[in-house]
Batch of 4 targets.
Target 1
Amino acid sequence: MREVQLRRERWPLREPFRISRGVKTAADVVVVEVIEQGVTGRGEGVPYARYGESVEGVLAQLESAAGALREGMTRTELQAFMKAGAARNALDCALWDLEAQLAGQTVWQLAGLPEPAALVTAQTISLDTPEAMGAAATRHAHRPLLKLKLDAHLVAERVASVRAAAPAARLIVDANEGWTPEVLEEALPALESLGIELLEQPLKADQDGPLDGIGHALPIAADESCHTRADLEALSRRYDFVNVKLDKSGGLTEALAMVGEARRLGLGVFVGCMICTSLSIRPALLVAAQADYVDLDGPLWLTNDREGGVRLGQDGRLEPGDAALWGGLSPRLALQTPT
């Protein structure tokens, strides 16, 4: 019989994180631990209000699955037992971690993937005035890739300010569904002239039909429009890239399958995350190794992260941290209380 432990945690941010929909000052996460034969598998999910999720709702989903987990529900059975989202992500990642340890393997060995290595991740520049965004870009000008959060106002001015502050950095833009088709058509020439490489989710997920008729040389990525493999075929006629996030896909199992299907359909792959701790990022690194663009800077926004978490190297790349946190075979690091 397995033991299942659930808890909620709140991790303060070092500064506010602003996007077109609002502001975050802390990361609210749910942690799952599944214990069997003295071995503990861990996972973390981030409930996201945009998708109708809350900490309380995710905990209720997990409580409803606890009985089946104690009786030995497998990771394969979980996919049909629970809908995609933060709750299934936490459970799926915990079961990967548990399954690998019981088999005497790392998760990447079990999945037939390379060991996580340092990679380039985007550094997010939070939505603010053009001047403030330029100042933030100055602090991060050494980073190879910056991601700008925008709304529908002062688009060209904000991008130009960041470009002037970080002339050597590659730039991508995320509108978080904040634009209309008119704003998009007006913004595209400016974004292209300023050297933007990728535009993420300019229109609302349920109102992105106009993308069919808007010509664009600048690649456009689906984020809020993209959750699981079931979305990809339709998206392939409208977008050039898809953003795979474990909290949307419902875990590592579906995320890995999404990468394969996206490639089959000719879509580029962008791997992202919510504002989270490194317990969420460790499994996402296995997907990120197969991606064209990576945005896994969630833990870098925290005042403090978990012990052994990911860290930023001097070359601006994200280093994977200690495998003892998740996925490895070395003794488990303690999951400390948020501070």
Target 2
Amino acid sequence: MNKYFLFLLITSSINSFAQNCTTPVSNDEVQIQYKKISTQPTDQLKLNYLNTWLRGQCLLSDHAYQLASVFNDDGMRLQFAYSAYPNIYDKQNYYTLFDAFNSLSYAFRFYDFVNGNVIEYQTPPVPAPLEIFPELNYPSPVGYKGVSGCSLPMSDNDFMVLVTPVIQQQSDVTRMNAATQFIQSNCVSIAQMMMLSTLIQLDLNRMKFMKQNLTKCCDIQNFSFADQVFSTQVYKNDWNGFGDATVKSMLPPPVVVVPVCMVTDADMSSIISSIKNLSFSSTKISTAKQIIQSKKCFTVSQMKSIVSLMDFEGDKLEVAKFGYDYTIDQQNYYQLTDVFDFDSSSSDLLAFLKTKK
């Protein structure tokens, strides 16, 4: 094809088009979309995907040329050129797209479109309408905050474009396999899984498909809506029981609130009164130890009050050493040296504390 001739032919017409966009899509984004489009099995699905993606996008001419190369047929390539042209950022360079056509006649047909000589632009094919799926009470994933198998579901527009290969399958088994592969490759909502399941005829196969894929959905706790796809109550009950068990297995374990370990002021008043009323030093020691062991959670300040009730220096030291393991602020236990009358008792307690580190 003579690119120079075509360039001269369309220069004036291209300049007459208004600039419709200001910021072209990045090269990285185009390469990502190129890979996704290339995986579509037919030219029609590729065109559907591109038309959906192009809405609101701004494209460089070189990128349009690259994307046109995914088509096997010049007719589909031409339809893509028609729909992409309004989204081109650098229309002055759009002549590069003419090299994408294998046939010169298609290049001239595109020239006629750009130049306005022949109006044969066709409305871009739209995805299959939602009417192919039954009218059910489909849950919305918007605002969902429960357990999730993926982060963000695909848009309904993308779903309707990409679901076509599943619809085209001829048997329950092949549709189950295609639908499962679809969910494995995309993040879907419960509503979208419900739609996929309605393409499967037998309830038994629907159940198998849905149980296999529930944990892949983004809004798993909306599972109860999906019982609408089953024709009998037996299957509905089976599904809801499975959903309940699945959600419970995925929920984090309940938070166990550990009671605060403490001895209240009222408890301390009662303890001090009980020990004070005892007559014998040996009884005071044994009672103090019994109370300390049963209550467990004393502060150093509370322990000082108990130790101070002992009659003799040796008794104080014995109870002080015993109480260490039942004190919650052990880092301050050295403060118990204040209750002793002799430095030797304080030194003995400090030596004991070193053995506890």
Target 3
Amino acid sequence: MQTSALALVFLGTIGALYFRPFGARDWQIAGAGALTAWVIGPLGLSHGIETIGDSANIVTFFLGLMLLAAGAESAGLYARAALLLRGRTGTRARVATVLVLGTLITAVLSNDATPLVLTPAIFAAGVVYSRATTDSAMAATFTADGASLLLPVSNPVNLLFFERFEMGFGQYLQTITPAALAGIAAMALVTWRRTPAVPVAAEDEAPPVRLAARGTVAPALVVVLGLAVAYVWAGLAEVPLGIITLGGGAALYAAARAAGPIEFATYRKHVAPGILVFVASLLLLVENLVAAGVLDRLADVLTSFEGRPGLLTVLGCAAIAAVLANLMNNWPSALLLAATIASAPGEHDALVAGALIGSTIGANFTMVGSLSTVFWLSLARQYGASYTAGNYARMAFAPTLAAMVAACFVAALLVWRPTGGCDSGSRSRWSPDWGMPTRVPAA
């Protein structure tokens, strides 16, 4: 009875996030779902509080990301990116510039920051419906998720798995980052090659002043470079990455302030406390599902891939993760997968790699797969662009599939070991932490 009730609560919460009954906001829906699951679920008061406390680093990371996005806008990084794009007179050159900038921004500031920085710049550089603008806009959202596997801080989903399975920064760089690089190369190649090699027509150029440059961006660039170094240091020293991100947001605020007066409306626009409630609430909801055994069937499906050829294991899990991400958005689906994999005993290196690939790169297939795509679409519509779900899916399919396959091939070579699998009874080097309940295998 409890299992069925919790399953209904989860499905009802996901459905409500799509339809928003009575105009409810995302954080209100997630909070209501989490509280209901907490009341009827098996975690209890103390374990539920512990679960919320364990999410502190991820919640801090999200807060830091919002501050970084606001600081990037206030410091004039949008304007400088627009000027750089306007200097590229060819359509392919403009797309290539977006791909390079998007990868760099995603690596350091996360995939959610990439559309916030690049989308206004792209529409400031050209008229809305020109081929150069359309292709550049698509390239921006593709690279936001396509490059978001690169580092633990490049996507909140990465940090979730990074912490849950105690990967270690060095291990992430040795196994996941090479797969991410392969995915980035494949995605960029497909996106660039299908872009026509034609000059940007004079009538397609935007008016000279659409996004004015503000002050000097040198202090902001110094902060961004310093943040990249700090991430590497923190990862190796096992310092919580959420604290580093929050510090980076504060430093970027100081850099923006040094360039001139700050419009606090920019910070009010980007910093939304409701997102923090949303993140912690979904985590609490999913952990109740795990404790009640609701996810046992999914765990059986996932672990059935283990012990098979490495590529099949990684591809199978990546495909499941991609489907879930595009059905319910990649944050709740990643929570579901991380909790499910952690609930089963044994080694899960290949499953973790596949889940990461499908939850990050694979979230690109549809408009609802990733929060960064939702940000991008909202900004594009503010500038008068109109991209339908069908048009987006058609444009995204080839680069996303190429990136997923390339990343899976490399990940399979690096993480799969023939002696692995849940039947071995040993723990993975990415062993689940947080003291969450694990399934007890049948005797």
Target 4
Amino acid sequence: MKTRAALLVVMAGLTLAPERTEAQQRIVFGLVSNIAVAHAPLYFAKELGYWAEEKLDIDVVVFNGSGVLLPQVVSKRVQVGFPNPDPLIISRQPGRDPLPLKFFFNVIRENVWEFAVLASSPVRTLQDMRGRKLGVGAITFGNIPLTRAMFRELGIEVGKDLELVPTGLGAPAFLALREGRVDALNLFDTLHATLQQQGTAIRRLKMPQKYLDLFSNGLIAHDEVLRDNPRLLAAFGRVLAKGIVACNVNRPACVRAFWKAHPNLKPAGDEAQAVANQVQLLNARFDKYLAFPRGDGPRWGEFPREGWQNMVQAMHDGGQIQTTAIDIASLYTNALVPAMNNFDPAEVIKAARAAN
């Protein structure tokens, strides 16, 4: 598996990939943030041989937010993306030019975005952010519409009563918070957990429950790719589902598989402590992969229609879309769910537990 800068892919027209056998199927997979341990299930799946079983060859490409990724999926330079759902909903408003895309795998089944302040901050609630500065990864990030909607419901207009400050991710964002250049960070769960691991005491501001319950990133593809090559997308989804199942039962081995693919991301120092720290970061995300309705067994990739309805309503209530008359069925498909679940979880668990 290869990881590249998005600029190289665009400039080179995706011609930099090494030679592949005819039997391999190639997928360019676009992320909206840097490679991190939260993506470890993909690499554990590779380590356990599931990419090879499906004859998949994956190029992982990093983009700076959903707003940058989605045009590449529209152009089919990227076959599968991993964005937030918000920009697609916005494009479905009457009178807009709709993006010819659909989500086909519900990956992160709860909201990963948080609001974090220093433990010593006078900010105690989201309402206290009036007149302050909020650090965000980038204005193009897919969570920005819901952030605007959330504050609008509280009577706070972003751009007027609250300034969004692009900080990037990781160290630059953490430094901006520590130095007081922003009053809070609106980043995702594993980044805030990393900040805590580095010794910075933070508090998370309580969000309205309806926003906590919204799903986050999922797999998206062009309508034509879904129509013309569903088997390829189903194979990708099946491998990802296996990776999540495997990582869930052996998170230390999952972390080590991630380091094997990205040795430059392995922390220096005591390996046992590094594994424990990385597992802690995985834990911050993993429950959101497994947030299936109570009493139901996992149906990997399946979207509940009411989840999309709730998302549309939240965005409308917050003023990010002008109508709730959105064609929900045009946003997603569950057609590939049976094929993506066509594997034996017991066999995957057995293989994962045997891994080192």
